[in-house]
Amino acid sequence: HRILPTIYWPHFFQNRSWMIAAQESFLTWCLFSPAIMQISSQTKQRTDLKRNLKFVIITTNLVLLISTTLAQSCVLILEFNGFSYQPSSYERSSKWNFLTVSTNSTVSDKLIRQSSFIVGDQLSRSDFHPSFDSGYQVLRLATELVPAVLSLIEPDNMSCYWSVAFYLSLIFFGIAQQLVIWNSFISGVISFEAKTLIRWEITITFFSCVAAFFFSLPFTTDLGIRLMYFFDYVIGTGWWLMLLLFLYIFAVFVIRGRPCTGDNVIRELFDIDNDHSFCNVFLSTFLTFIWSIVLPIMLIIFSIVQMKQCKVRD
């Protein structure tokens, strides 16, 4: 409790909290694992798959740890200055307020339902009208918590460098994400006429990213956030993505079969033929069992539970 005083610990033992954590884990690795496939496939040279895997895992966990620590620190600073955070909703201006004077109310009194998506999340309060207020906002850490803390802390106590560094790092992460996503599109365009278009790869990449930027500008408007909520809800619920991933695993490992099997993937990842250490043998056997039996079953179970929890019918 002293390390994480802002956590309402009874929520830690609720089934709903674990389902949200499972959903966020699935969305995180469902988005970042294709980066390994993209890095490993779009090159003529032999790549070290284990090195790429370690890099993505370490970078992802490091960013998540820093974000969690920053969010916890922001909540502590707000409480120290006599404020408490409450979820806001984008639909009505009367529900835009996300700061209130600190009271003795607990988190369970303020939060009824929580759904975490890709870009934003949905937090419902008891005073939200279900027909008018969704409780959805995008990037609450960057749009609510950090700006509120920066407005409370005096310039003598914290340099403006940290605010610039925070938002500049978000910009760099966005640019890097765009380059990874659009690399697949650019590779597909170049493949039509590889000998001619390979010289224009940098130009095609630049104009593709610029076009994507201008196409995303409408999402910053009042109508755009409604479209963002729709797409984020459809994709972020994740239940149909779990079904697609299950079908993909079944098609590749069962229908397609050799050489695309879990054993061959493990051999390529851990180099079993040359390294017979206990750690490699144990991890290879464990991952083969997980990928072949446990993972497909868990995907089906999570898909059904997630579809029920997110109230898709509503």
The profile of the biggest β sheet is: 3 strands, antiparallel
- Can you count the helices? 11
Radius of gyration: 23 Å
Distance between the termini: 37 Å
Portion in beta strands: 5-15%
The residue-averaged pLDDT reads: 76
List the domain count as a whole number. Answer: 2
Extended strand count: 5
User: Which residues form runs of ≥5 with pLDDT under 50?
Assistant: 105-111
Give the class from helix and strand content and strand pairing: mainly alpha
Membrane topology: Multi-pass membrane protein
Main location: membrane
GO molecular function: amino acid:sodium symporter activity; L-amino acid transmembrane transporter activity
Pfam families: SNF
Notable features of this structure?
mainly alpha, transmembrane helix, L-amino acid transmembrane transporter activity, 11 helices, 314 residues, three-stranded antiparallel sheet
